[in-house]
């Protein structure tokens, strides 16, 4: 297997999160290249590299960047998503703890390209310890004069993309070390609805410096024609060596599991695998044996590469219990705005619970599919359709196990 470290190159260095170590290993050198490239040229580099969003959707990043106006009378903003609330997904926290300056460097390049003067990083509330590491890196960047043309603010918890009135969180915490703050002597930014805003995942932005430094062709030298480059895969479950490992798109699934994960734990057989976080359709062992890690291959079998949150399940796994565990998460996390999602997540959770308690019937299995269909495509966001995908994939591939649990 070919080793490739586009984003993870500095992860194993001692004190890799500090500016001193990062600059000693070439960090921020790409900023010099911005002097000889226009914003439009940087956007074209990203487009030519066919960088695909690494937060789950896999949409071409360059196409999104081109939507940002270059001559607007309104201020433009960058929002960087580090939510990682989906079970099985924990790759972005590796970047913000192991090489936060790579993210900052990517933010500066991106803001230059879209002519934004302020970037906001949304980080999930549970990531408080990781936020402190990231904030420390931002402080170092300010002190080194690297953020003279662009401000970076962290938002922790709710309020990822607030663009209206100033948030109470920012108002109460700005100026305090370890919390969102503005650059000293800088006026507070205007927060209004309707301003052009680019939203990208942490890993997507952290990939940009490599493309600017080495060129689009160097990035496309990895991966496949339609899925070029690499992805940080968060490998968990029944493997010998769980962790976060970078691999190029197109890598055979089993080769990845055996090479990086050390194979299935205790020498047992593989039963199932969720390839990209729990919102992706589950796969059976036979499918995994014949699939590669790229967007097109996963889409062809009704699943998705998602965020690369790979969950491995061995031969002893009860698939009914596994689905119940996932549905409990969705039931808890539904915001409740849309009726199909609010009522549907609770309903399917109870139905699977009834099957596990030996109180279910064959009609309950069919009812699960019926509710899944009702939830799919009938809500404002994609939360409910994700639940639908999970239910259908589990029953499609392991229906005999659900019937055996009755």
Features:
single chain; 406 residues; alpha/beta; Rossmann fold; Ubiquitin-like (UB roll); de novo design (two linked rop proteins); 3 domains; 5-stranded mixed β-sheet; 4-stranded parallel β-sheet; 17 helices; 9 strands; globular
Poorly predicted ranges: 159-192
Q: Which fold does the CATH topology of the largest domain refer to?
A: Rossmann fold
Strand tally is 9
Radius of gyration: 22 Å
Structure description:
- By secondary structure, the chain is α/β, with parallel strands linked by helices.
- The protein folds into three domains: 202 residues, Rossmann fold, CATH 3.40.50; 85 residues, Roll (Ubiquitin-like (UB roll)), CATH 3.10.20; 86 residues, NADH-ubiquinone oxidoreductase 51kDa subunit, iron-sulphur binding domain (de novo design (two linked rop proteins)).
- The chain is built from 17 helices and nine strands.
- The chain is globular and about 65 Å long.
- The two termini are 44 Å apart.
Provide a compact summary of the structure.
With 406 residues, this protein is of the alpha/beta class.
């Amino acid at each position: 297997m070919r080793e490739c470290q586009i984003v993870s190159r500095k992860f194993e260095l001692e004190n890799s999160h500090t500016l001193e170590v990062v600059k000693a290993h070439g960090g921020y050198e790409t900023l010099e290249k911005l002097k000889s490239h226009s914003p439009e040229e940087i956007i074209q580099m990203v487009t030519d590299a066919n960088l695909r969003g690494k937060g789950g959707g896999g949409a071409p990043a360059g196409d999104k960047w081109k939507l940002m106006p270059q001559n607007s009378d309104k201020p433009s903003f960058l929002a960087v998503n580090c939510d990682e609330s989906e079970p099985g997904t924990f790759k972005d926290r590796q970047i913000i703890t192991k090489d936060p300056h790579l993210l900052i460097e990517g933010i500066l390049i991106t803001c230059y390209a879209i002519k934004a003067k302020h970037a906001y990083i949304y980080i999930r509330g549970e990531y408080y310890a990781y936020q402190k590491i990231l904030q420390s890196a931002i402080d170092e960047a300010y002190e080194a004069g690297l953020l003279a043309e662009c401000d970076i603010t962290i938002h922790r918890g709710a309020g990822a993309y607030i663009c209206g009135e100033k948030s109470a969180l920012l108002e109460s915490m700005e100026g305090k070390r370890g919390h969102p703050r503005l650059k000293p002597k800088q006026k507070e930014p205007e927060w209004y609805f309707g301003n052009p805003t680019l939203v990208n995942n942490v890993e997507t932005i952290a990939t940009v410096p490599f493309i600017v430094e080495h060129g689009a062709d160097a990035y496309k030298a990895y991966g496949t024609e339609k899925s070029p480059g690499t992805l940080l895969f968060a490998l968990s479950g029944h493997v010998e060596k769980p962790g976060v490992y970078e691999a190029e798109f197109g890598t055979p699934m089993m080769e990845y599991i055996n090479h990086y994960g050390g194979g299935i734990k205790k020498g047992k057989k593989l039963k199932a695998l969720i390839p990209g976080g729990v919102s992706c359709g589950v796969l059976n062992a036979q499918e995994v044996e014949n699939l590669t890690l790229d967007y097109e291959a996963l889409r062809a079998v009704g699943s998705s590469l998602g965020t690369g949150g790979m969950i491995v399940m061995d031969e002893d796994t009860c698939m009914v219990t596994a689905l119940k565990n996932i549905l409990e998460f969705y039931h808890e996390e539904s915001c409740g705005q849309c009726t199909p999602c609010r009522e549907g997540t609770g309903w399917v959770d109870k139905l699977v619970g009834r099957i596990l308690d030996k109180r279910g019937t064959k009609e309950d299995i069919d009812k699960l599919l019926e509710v899944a269909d009702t939830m799919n495509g009938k809500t404002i966001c994609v939360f409910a359709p994700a639940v639908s995908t999970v239910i259908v994939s589990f029953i499609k591939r392991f229906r005999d196990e659900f019937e055996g649990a009755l």
